[in-house]
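Exam revision sheet. Question 4 asks you to relate a sequence to its structure. Input first:
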Amino acid sequence: MARTCSVEALVLHAYDVGEADRFLLLFTRERGRLAARARGVRRLGSRMGGHLLAHQHLSLTLAESSAGWTVTSAQRLNHSAALPIEQFAMAEEGCELLLALLHDEEALPAIFDLTLHFLQSCREGQGDPVLAFSLELLRLLGLLPAVTEKEFPGHLAPQAIRTIEEALRSSGSLASLPPALLRSLSILCRERIEEHANRTSRCLSVTRQLKEWAVPAR
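Answer key, C-alpha coordinates:
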Protein backbone atom coordinates (compact mmCIF):
# COMPACT_ATOMS: atom_id res chain seq x y z
CA MET A 1 0.00 0.00 0.00
CA ALA A 2 1.34 3.43 -0.96
CA ARG A 3 2.48 5.72 1.86
CA THR A 4 0.93 9.20 1.73
CA CYS A 5 1.93 12.56 3.18
CA SER A 6 0.84 16.19 2.99
CA VAL A 7 3.42 18.88 2.22
CA GLU A 8 3.68 22.60 1.61
CA ALA A 9 5.58 22.91 -1.66
CA LEU A 10 7.10 25.32 -4.15
CA VAL A 11 7.32 24.12 -7.75
CA LEU A 12 10.89 24.71 -8.93
CA HIS A 13 10.34 23.17 -12.37
CA ALA A 14 7.53 21.39 -14.22
CA TYR A 15 8.00 19.17 -17.29
CA ASP A 16 5.33 17.63 -19.50
CA VAL A 17 5.92 13.89 -19.91
CA GLY A 18 4.02 11.14 -21.69
CA GLU A 19 0.59 11.83 -23.15
CA ALA A 20 -0.96 13.64 -20.20
CA ASP A 21 1.42 13.62 -17.20
CA ARG A 22 3.59 16.31 -15.65
CA PHE A 23 6.87 15.74 -13.81
CA LEU A 24 7.61 18.17 -10.97
CA LEU A 25 10.76 19.19 -9.14
CA LEU A 26 9.53 20.41 -5.77
CA PHE A 27 10.99 22.16 -2.76
CA THR A 28 8.90 21.24 0.27
CA ARG A 29 8.95 22.65 3.76
CA GLU A 30 8.72 19.21 5.38
CA ARG A 31 11.00 17.09 3.17
CA GLY A 32 13.19 19.48 1.21
CA ARG A 33 13.75 18.84 -2.48
CA LEU A 34 11.94 15.95 -4.12
CA ALA A 35 10.54 14.86 -7.48
CA ALA A 36 6.94 13.79 -8.10
CA ARG A 37 4.77 12.80 -11.04
CA ALA A 38 1.25 14.12 -11.55
CA ARG A 39 -0.66 11.66 -13.70
CA GLY A 40 -3.28 12.77 -16.20
CA VAL A 41 -3.19 16.44 -15.21
CA ARG A 42 -2.87 17.69 -18.80
CA ARG A 43 -6.18 16.16 -19.81
CA LEU A 44 -9.15 18.46 -20.34
CA GLY A 45 -11.13 18.73 -17.15
CA SER A 46 -8.23 18.01 -14.80
CA ARG A 47 -8.61 19.99 -11.58
CA MET A 48 -4.90 19.96 -10.81
CA GLY A 49 -3.36 20.88 -14.16
CA GLY A 50 -3.60 24.65 -13.71
CA HIS A 51 -1.99 24.47 -10.27
CA LEU A 52 1.07 22.37 -11.08
CA LEU A 53 3.17 25.02 -12.80
CA ALA A 54 6.57 26.56 -12.12
CA HIS A 55 6.89 28.93 -9.13
CA GLN A 56 3.52 28.02 -7.63
CA HIS A 57 3.06 27.76 -3.85
CA LEU A 58 0.94 24.68 -3.15
CA SER A 59 -0.47 22.35 -0.56
CA LEU A 60 0.03 18.83 -1.95
CA THR A 61 -0.86 15.29 -1.01
CA LEU A 62 1.77 12.82 -2.22
CA ALA A 63 1.72 9.04 -2.42
CA GLU A 64 4.98 7.08 -2.39
CA SER A 65 5.41 3.77 -4.19
CA SER A 66 8.25 1.80 -5.73
CA ALA A 67 8.03 4.17 -8.74
CA GLY A 68 8.54 7.26 -6.58
CA TRP A 69 6.23 10.07 -5.47
CA THR A 70 2.89 10.77 -7.15
CA VAL A 71 0.74 13.88 -6.65
CA THR A 72 -2.80 12.89 -5.65
CA SER A 73 -4.22 16.32 -4.76
CA ALA A 74 -3.15 19.96 -5.06
CA GLN A 75 -4.39 23.27 -3.72
CA ARG A 76 -2.89 26.66 -4.58
CA LEU A 77 -1.74 28.80 -1.67
CA ASN A 78 -1.07 31.87 -3.81
CA HIS A 79 -3.31 33.38 -6.48
CA SER A 80 -0.93 35.60 -8.44
CA ALA A 81 -1.11 36.16 -12.17
CA ALA A 82 1.57 34.80 -14.50
CA LEU A 83 4.92 36.58 -14.19
CA PRO A 84 6.13 38.95 -16.92
CA ILE A 85 9.09 37.55 -18.84
CA GLU A 86 11.87 39.41 -16.96
CA GLN A 87 10.49 38.52 -13.51
CA PHE A 88 9.92 34.94 -14.71
CA ALA A 89 13.59 34.70 -15.74
CA MET A 90 14.72 35.96 -12.32
CA ALA A 91 12.48 33.41 -10.57
CA GLU A 92 13.92 30.68 -12.83
CA GLU A 93 17.46 31.73 -11.92
CA GLY A 94 16.68 31.39 -8.21
CA CYS A 95 15.04 27.99 -8.74
CA GLU A 96 18.02 26.77 -10.78
CA LEU A 97 20.30 27.85 -7.95
CA LEU A 98 18.29 25.78 -5.46
CA LEU A 99 18.41 22.74 -7.74
CA ALA A 100 22.17 23.18 -8.08
CA LEU A 101 22.88 23.43 -4.35
CA LEU A 102 20.24 21.39 -2.50
CA HIS A 103 20.23 17.64 -1.91
CA ASP A 104 17.16 15.40 -2.11
CA GLU A 105 14.82 15.02 0.87
CA GLU A 106 16.62 17.27 3.36
CA ALA A 107 14.21 19.54 5.23
CA LEU A 108 15.43 23.17 5.25
CA PRO A 109 12.54 25.31 6.55
CA ALA A 110 14.58 28.53 6.79
CA ILE A 111 15.57 28.21 3.12
CA PHE A 112 11.97 27.39 2.21
CA ASP A 113 10.85 30.67 3.82
CA LEU A 114 13.67 32.53 2.07
CA THR A 115 12.58 31.10 -1.30
CA LEU A 116 8.95 31.99 -0.65
CA HIS A 117 9.99 35.59 0.03
CA PHE A 118 12.24 35.61 -3.05
CA LEU A 119 9.43 34.48 -5.37
CA GLN A 120 7.14 37.11 -3.89
CA SER A 121 9.82 39.75 -4.56
CA CYS A 122 9.99 38.57 -8.18
CA ARG A 123 6.21 38.97 -8.48
CA GLU A 124 6.34 42.49 -7.07
CA GLY A 125 8.92 43.44 -9.70
CA GLN A 126 10.86 45.84 -7.48
CA GLY A 127 14.45 45.56 -8.70
CA ASP A 128 16.49 42.38 -9.04
CA PRO A 129 16.30 40.16 -5.91
CA VAL A 130 18.56 37.38 -7.25
CA LEU A 131 21.85 38.59 -5.76
CA ALA A 132 20.42 39.15 -2.26
CA PHE A 133 18.73 35.72 -2.46
CA SER A 134 22.00 34.09 -3.56
CA LEU A 135 23.97 35.62 -0.69
CA GLU A 136 21.45 34.60 1.96
CA LEU A 137 21.08 31.10 0.47
CA LEU A 138 24.84 30.57 0.55
CA ARG A 139 24.96 31.82 4.14
CA LEU A 140 22.16 29.50 5.31
CA LEU A 141 23.83 26.53 3.61
CA GLY A 142 27.12 27.32 5.35
CA LEU A 143 28.85 27.97 2.03
CA LEU A 144 29.60 31.62 2.74
CA PRO A 145 32.21 31.84 5.53
CA ALA A 146 32.46 34.81 7.86
CA VAL A 147 33.47 37.36 5.25
CA THR A 148 36.67 39.19 6.09
CA GLU A 149 39.29 40.91 4.00
CA LYS A 150 41.68 38.02 4.66
CA GLU A 151 39.26 35.29 3.56
CA PHE A 152 38.19 37.09 0.39
CA PRO A 153 41.19 39.18 -0.66
CA GLY A 154 40.46 41.65 -3.42
CA HIS A 155 36.69 41.25 -3.07
CA LEU A 156 35.19 42.64 0.12
CA ALA A 157 36.72 44.76 2.84
CA PRO A 158 35.18 44.93 6.35
CA GLN A 159 33.60 48.33 5.66
CA ALA A 160 31.93 46.91 2.55
CA ILE A 161 30.52 44.04 4.62
CA ARG A 162 28.99 46.50 7.08
CA THR A 163 27.44 48.43 4.18
CA ILE A 164 25.92 45.23 2.76
CA GLU A 165 24.55 44.09 6.12
CA GLU A 166 22.97 47.49 6.73
CA ALA A 167 21.32 47.49 3.29
CA LEU A 168 19.86 44.03 3.87
CA ARG A 169 18.62 44.92 7.36
CA SER A 170 16.97 48.17 6.31
CA SER A 171 15.28 47.13 3.05
CA GLY A 172 16.17 43.52 2.23
CA SER A 173 17.58 44.82 -1.06
CA LEU A 174 21.04 45.51 -2.46
CA ALA A 175 19.81 48.06 -5.00
CA SER A 176 21.29 51.00 -3.08
CA LEU A 177 24.85 49.62 -3.15
CA PRO A 178 27.51 51.14 -5.43
CA PRO A 179 27.94 49.33 -8.79
CA ALA A 180 31.54 48.34 -7.97
CA LEU A 181 30.42 46.64 -4.76
CA LEU A 182 27.58 44.86 -6.56
CA ARG A 183 30.10 43.52 -9.09
CA SER A 184 32.32 42.24 -6.27
CA LEU A 185 29.35 40.51 -4.65
CA SER A 186 28.40 38.91 -7.96
CA ILE A 187 31.94 37.57 -8.39
CA LEU A 188 31.94 36.22 -4.84
CA CYS A 189 28.59 34.44 -5.31
CA ARG A 190 29.57 33.01 -8.68
CA GLU A 191 32.80 31.57 -7.30
CA ARG A 192 31.08 29.94 -4.32
CA ILE A 193 28.26 28.56 -6.47
CA GLU A 194 30.63 27.13 -9.09
CA GLU A 195 32.65 25.49 -6.32
CA HIS A 196 29.68 23.75 -4.70
CA ALA A 197 27.01 23.35 -7.40
CA ASN A 198 25.99 19.88 -8.56
CA ARG A 199 24.65 21.28 -11.87
CA THR A 200 25.13 24.39 -14.01
CA SER A 201 22.46 27.08 -13.97
CA ARG A 202 20.86 27.47 -17.38
CA CYS A 203 19.25 30.84 -16.67
CA LEU A 204 22.19 33.14 -15.97
CA SER A 205 22.86 34.12 -19.58
CA VAL A 206 19.13 34.53 -20.29
CA THR A 207 18.67 36.90 -17.35
CA ARG A 208 21.75 38.91 -18.30
CA GLN A 209 20.45 39.27 -21.86
CA LEU A 210 17.04 40.42 -20.63
CA LYS A 211 18.69 43.05 -18.45
CA GLU A 212 20.67 44.32 -21.43
CA TRP A 213 17.47 44.58 -23.47
CA ALA A 214 15.83 46.51 -20.63
CA VAL A 215 18.50 49.26 -20.65
CA PRO A 216 17.09 52.29 -22.53
CA ALA A 217 18.99 53.27 -25.66
CA ARG A 218 20.98 56.51 -25.42
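Marking note for examiners. The helical segments are 85-101, 109-124, 130-140, 158-171, 179-196, 204-214.
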